[in-house]
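User: Continuing from earlier, I have the next pair ready.

Assistant: Great, send them over.

User: Here they are, in order.

Assistant: Folding the first of the pair now:
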Amino acid sequence: MNRNDFRELARVRLREAQALLQAGHYSGAYYLAGYAVECALKACIAKMTKSGDFPDLKTVQDSYTHKLGQLVKVAGLEAERDKLEGEDRAFALNWGVVKDWTEASRYDLYERAQAESLITAVTNRRSGIMRWLRNHW
């Protein structure tokens, strides 16, 4: 997988999440919305890799996770995220929703409100997490 693959996968998974939400499949919508963020973060990490460079082993190992907070750190976006949280209350609230997603959510059941909350936090046009990540992928 490369950067473009991760970007496209983030877009596709987000569209799928929105379709599942509209169809009333809230648990799948919740899971895929979080997975879209994971893919976007991995695209940000892939962007940091220069063609021909041998990647640092720790960075590679730390990238093979589903933990969004850790992926933000590996992508070098932690300081910017912290700054945005301080400047933009809506962004802070959105990150507060998104950061709680885990890959284990695929085993849980979610209600409509939970799925809507996550998808809104990801897609909000002004302060959404995906908008922020698109600036870096």
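And the other member of the pair:
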Amino acid sequence: MTKYVAALAVFALGVALSGLASGTPQKDTYKLTANLKPRFEVPKPKGVPVGATGLFTGTAVELANDKARLAWRLTFSKLSGRAVGAHVHKGKAGKAGPVLVALCGPCRTGQRGRATVSHSQLRTLVNGAAYVNVHTQRNAAGEIRGQLKASGGSGSGGTDSETTTTTTTEPSPYP
């Protein structure tokens, strides 16, 4: 009987440990990009010079503590004035939304940075539900904007049901 109990205990421990292992998030890595243009900004900016543009590139790495590490680089040119701030916002194309990550303020082109986000925020970034924009004094709500696109990751980062990674296309110009 003792051998039976010992074998059952070992079996139960094995099941418990395998259950814990399957619930542990994988360390997926995602590449993020956004092409920033005035025509994507909402509300429509005023007095933006022709050729104003920007590019956001980043890498997000999932960590095991319900966090992800985001390393990014932001470049821009031909704005109406100094970049007073830049953010990653939650929002689909054509919709304004709340700030998820403050990138810089004031900002300079070529600036790099790091941030820590939750897995929930990471899902927003990689599922096309976030955008990057750069603010100027003339266009305090934003002068250039681009929807984030993601690539990489396995889409199986844990037991969360919201782990599907999709790649979005650049939104069409706003009317």
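Worth noting for the second one:
Residues 26-152 form a domain with the Immunoglobulin-like fold (CATH 2.60.40). Confidence is low (pLDDT under 50) at residues 4-25, 156-175.
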